Amino acid sequence: MKNLLAALIALLLPYVASAQFSISGKIINQSGEVLPGASISIIKLNRGAQADVNGNYNLTNLPAGNYTLQASYVGYQLLTKTVALNSSQTINLTLANGVFSAEEVVVTATRAGRNSPTAFTNLSKKDLEKNNFGQDLPYLLNQTPSVVTTSDAGAGIGYTGIRIRGSDGSRVNVTINGIPYNDSESQGSFFVDLPDIASSVNNIQVQRGVGTSTNGAGAFGGSINIQTTTRRDTGYADISNSMGSFNSVKNTINLGTGLLGGHFSVDGRLSRIKSDGYIDRASSQLKSFFVSGAYYGKNSTLRANVFSGYERTYQAWNGVPDYIISDNSLPNNRTYNELGILPDGSFYKDQVDDYLQNHYQLLYDQKLSDKVSFSGALHYTKGKGYYEEYKADASVEDYGLTPVVIGGTTITNTDLARRRWLDNDFYGVTYALKYLPQDNLNFTLGGAYNRYKGAHFGNIIYTRESAGIPPNYEYYRDDATKNDFNIFGRGELKTGNTTVFADMQYRRIYYSFLGFDRNLNNIQQNATLNFFNPKVGVTYEFDGQNNVYASFAVGNREPNRDDYTNSTPASRPKAENLKDFEAGYRVATSAFRGGINLFYMLYKNQLILTGSLNDVGAQIRSNVKDSYRTGIELDGRLKITKALSWAATATISSNKIKNYGQFLNNYDDGSQAFILLKKTNIAFSPSFIGSSELSLTPIKGGEIAFISKYIGQQYLDNTSNTNPVGFPVSGNNAYVTDRLLKSYFVSDVRVRYNFSVRSVKNIGLGLQVNNVFNKKYEANGATYPDIEGGQVVNYNYYFPQATRNFMASVSLSF
């Protein structure tokens, strides 16, 4: 038996020695897209294969040994990889772009890098996709540090807002491919005008504080840098549909050719979103499209983007009065919208905001040498629209008309409907020149020149009685022009483990307007402002996973349109100044990524509403000499197990105004009462903001996420609820006596499952249940206190947010 066993082993040895193995895997590009048809070969054996429609390849019947794999695909660099084969292996391969990837130059000129001494968060296309059920873009950024989002309609569709570190959207700089998006006059960013833009976004960086130099409005709370669709090398067709509470529906189609002939690509998107809103008569009808065509040369890229958004939303921007919310006997006490009410108790169906905005961008990028690259863009934005209002018993004199006599009766007042129009053009050029003389040193020279022309005018389109008003009568017109020029230079030098950063920006603004405003005042002003915004910082790397940083930055910001039109040159406010100190620690390992950031933002001449009246009797924002924000931000993502991860953020801050004076109109005697507060809280600035996302992947392609957000108490004005001495507050319930937003804690649940079948690359099923515990809360509000009958009377308005609601989605990718 021993001899027989030895003989069998001897006979089998040649077969064991020549055992056959396999190499298989997937071939993708740097964006994670599969590359069907990519070639892979083994040089030694002169054998090869091609990737299938899903990017998968398989090389079989390979004897043990050392091999060199070679993978190639048109438009990509050749990849070689050495493999020691002694068992079957799975090897996934990622091919790098073979042509100049200039689209990164477009955004990196105004972005923070990995070691920049700046607080920032990067969001990828996948990060945005998993939360994109149809809500506006601010809601997709809700889990980033120090962010508070609000919705006029209560469900995140329609008019929404975002605050970063307590600063509203007019103090948050927004760019799309480096091109300014903030409105030149109000300085706000209205994402409702770009519905479903997230479906055409490749990535977003959210910076907090002054941040790096950028184009457009001054960043006083933060900046949002958006990069739209970039190169996709394989053709695709994506269909996505969502529907849910409040008759909300979202339909999106994305199409792309992939890379044609190694040089051309065309991408397109068409979207429609509709919702009734949680608030009564807060409906939204939104439409948008995005088309992008690109040419990729060996050392250059030329891309043309055309995108458009149309919105028609019923006005809900006044909120719900506190006395309605506090009346639990009313069936709709939290959703009542009083705008557009007619004398018979019905509502005016056209109490709407109606606006169309078209964007045209031409982006060109050129690699001039191994050390120098250039990016430039021409852009044009055309916006035109109106908001329509019904006004009962309006005085004709308020519209520049003389009362008329009809049938022996003098018509001094009439019911009417009016439209207030904005017709604007915004165009200009942006540029950036990057120079990398050596690996540890780089310079960027960038800037922009932009011009804005805006026509503000109003028409009366309907009157109950003719009152001598001709059809479509124009009762005011005011034309404005704004030129915005900036140039910045930035450099980074790395010596050993230390990187030194310096950034200098000069910005010049010219603003003028002429005509009659909507109050029929003849206004004409112009102003020129010059700003210098220096920034310096240093980062020290302990190793490839840990670094600490510190920075100091200066920001300046001009007054907005209302600050000018509601004042004279003698009374108009000054520009604002911010000195921003930041320091932090970042860590990035395979199991944990996170950081701690300390900030101290010292404002000079911050503009806020104080209730004071200027020399023309208008209530305007006034400069307060000293105010500050200081705090600590924490964020992190922990991979607990292969299937379970937890991401969380927290911001603890103190937001104060020193020596604040508030004025209240005293209607008893026509005077103004005054409150002087040595130190008070800045409005809409919670001292604690926290978020959490616990994500479980129980099966391949499946995810269950439990998402939470906590917002601490916020004040509606800057008095911290303090009233003038000797004036008691009227009312006997919390909603009437308090000028504040109560703290709230809200949780959502998100479920997604992705799988594929034969000809369908991906089928995605999703469900998001918002406010799963049915919390009643308000995320925004306004207050208008005055003195009547010897008492302070608070006129408070709140924006209640939706109770439990859901959105479900189905998507197909081909």
Automatic annotation (TrEMBL):
The keyword rRNA-binding does not apply. GO terms for cellular component: cell outer membrane. It is found in: Cell outer membrane. Residues 114-222 form the TonB-dependent receptor plug domain. One of its GO terms (molecular function) is siderophore uptake transmembrane transporter activity. Residues 300-772 form the TonB-dependent receptor-like beta-barrel domain. Keywords: Cell outer membrane, Ion transport, Iron, Iron transport, Membrane, Receptor, Signal, TonB box, Transmembrane, Transmembrane beta strand, Transport. The keyword Metal-binding does not apply. Residues 1-19 form the signal peptide. InterPro entries: Beta-barrel_TonB (IPR000531), Beta-barrel_TonB_sf (IPR036942), CarboxyPept-like_regulatory (IPR008969), Plug_dom (IPR012910), Plug_dom_sf (IPR037066), TonB-dep_rcpt-like (IPR039426). Belongs to the TonB-dependent receptor family. This is TonB-dependent receptor. It comes from Mucilaginibacter pedocola.
